[in-house]
Structure formats: C-alpha cells, structure tokens
C-alpha cells in the first residue's frame, strides 16, 4: 500500500496531522509532509514524474481518514 501526498496542492490546514500523526507532520513551509519519506541526505522521496511525496506502508491505520478529510484532496491511498 502507498500513501501519496501532492504537496503543491496542500493548503496546510493540518487535518491530516491531527487525524494521522503517525504519517503526517507540518514542514517548515507550513505544508504537510509524509513522515519517513526522506532519503538519508534529507531529500524527499518524490516521484520523479509528478514530484509527489510517496510512502509505502504495511498498514494504513488512520491515513485513509486523513485522505477523506483533506479539504483539497491532495492525499491519495493506493491499495
């Protein structure tokens, strides 16, 4: 399973952080960021074609709730 975050669309409302703090945090620019989606050098693991942050996970836990609550629908879940 994969969580995809379109950071360009994010408005920084924080609903994903409130609902799924295991996966999301607010970055310094005020937008959401997928936790543990960084390479060792600190760079985000972005899809080279889309620029979206991606995180593979065994369990979605509350990530689906966060995706459903996102007002701009910038969180996508691939099962």
From TrEMBL:
It comes from the Bacteria. Residues 35-66 are annotated as: Disordered. Pfam families: Fer4_15. InterPro entries: 4Fe4S_Fe-S-bd (IPR017896), Fe-S_cluster_ET (IPR051269). GO terms for molecular function: iron-sulfur cluster binding; metal ion binding. Keywords: Electron transport, Iron, Iron-sulfur, Metal-binding, Transport. This is Ferredoxin. It comes from Candidatus Staskawiczbacteria bacterium CG10_big_fil_rev_8_21_14_0_10_38_10. Residues 44-62 have a biased composition (Basic and acidic residues). Residues 1-29 form the 4Fe-4S ferredoxin-type domain.
């Amino acid at each position: 399973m994969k969580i995809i975050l379109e950071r360009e669309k994010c408005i920084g409302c924080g609903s994903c952080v409130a609902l799924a703090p295991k996966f999301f945090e607010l970055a310094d620019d005020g937008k959401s960021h997928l936790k543990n989606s960084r390479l060792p050098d600190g760079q985000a693991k972005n899809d080279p074609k889309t620029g979206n942050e991606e995180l593979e996970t065994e369990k979605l836990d509350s990530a689906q709730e966060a995706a459903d609550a996102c007002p701009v629908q910038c969180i996508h879940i691939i099962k």
